[in-house]
Specification:
The protein has three domains: 15-194, no CATH class; 198-272, no CATH class; 283-366, no CATH class. Helices cover 48% and strands 14% of the residues. It has helices spanning 38-43, 48-57, 59-66, 68-71, 92-95, 130-147, 196-200, 207-212, 223-237, 241-254, 259-270, 275-305, 307-321, 328-335, 340-352, 358-366; strands at residues 15-18, 80-81, 88-89, 99-100, 103-108, 117-125, 152-159, 167-175, 182-190. The strands form two sheets. It has a seven-stranded mixed beta sheet with strand order 1-8-9-7-6-5-2, with helices on both faces. The longest helix has 31 residues, at 275-305.
Amino acid sequence: MAKTEIPETNGKPTTKAKVKSVPKAKAKPRAKAKVKSKATTQARQGFDPLYKELITTYLNQLVETIAPELASRLDFSKAVSQNKELYVYRNKALYGHKKQVDHLFEVPFLNVEESAKILIHVELENNDDLEIMQKRMLHYFYLIDLQFENLDVLPIVLFFNQKATPGIHRQTITKGKYFETFQFNFMQWGLGNDNAEKWLNHKQPKPLYAALATHMKSQTLTAEEIGLNALSLVKHTEKNDNRVTLLLDYIESFLDLKPDEKERFLQKIKSTQGVDQMYQRWSERIANEAIMQGLEKGMEKGMEKGKIEGKIETLMTILETFNVQCSTQEETLLKSISDTHRLDEILIAIAKNQGQNFHEMMMQISQMPSS
């Protein structure tokens, strides 16, 4: 099969760099998420779970953005994710621990024989700088090429930090100090320094841009305005309910808002027609998911500790989900209730009203004869 050229992008010249030895990189803590959905709870441990789902879902849009001519020749409906455990690079001197590829997809071409395919290797980077990533991408290529020596590879790095040039560029690594052995090319997108407004108002808007804009900067938009524009973009470009949920999970997780900005953000959502309904449906879905998680945990604990204590554990879990503080007196009052039916009534009422009536209920119960 003829070699597939990695494209020049946006008219930018190719950046060449000699591979240099680099000191051991110190790991930095990853960004923490803020929303309490199942997906974003996972994201608190690092944003890999949401990122993986986003890239897998919108792989076609990522490649269309970075290599549009190549993307037009690929059949993304038949893309297959490869086992990334096969591609582990161990270099404690350089990284301090082993590294494995983030994502590797095998994608067939359209209108050609079935054997014609290309590999798309996508890396997310939130800590290391360009120099370290150049070396890592080259090492990953060695590993991938050993397994698939007859397939071309499109390597892509998304920089979520601010250590890369904004926008999309092609990087070229020249291997060989005294004799130029070969050149290795990969595409990079410096998201952390890119312009959110540019992608939110792109002439060919894509749902993917709404999610990625939360990592970008803007000279004209505030953080809450970036969020609102991102939600509007989702509203007008994505109709699939599951994908809408994914995008809103992502936006809420990585949109960096202070408490006062969050309040303004929510107020603007309420006054934006269409977006308010979409956001409300998402909020209700998250609340229901949290309730089900609380019930499941309560059932597990109930089997371990008995019905009464299990139901109380469920109540406490749901209250925590809705950020409702339970005082020591209220917790003591709950534990004094021995009627499982009454506990069920309280649980249902709290779940239905998302905990807003909890304190009033406790006040009423305290005035009743003890069960």
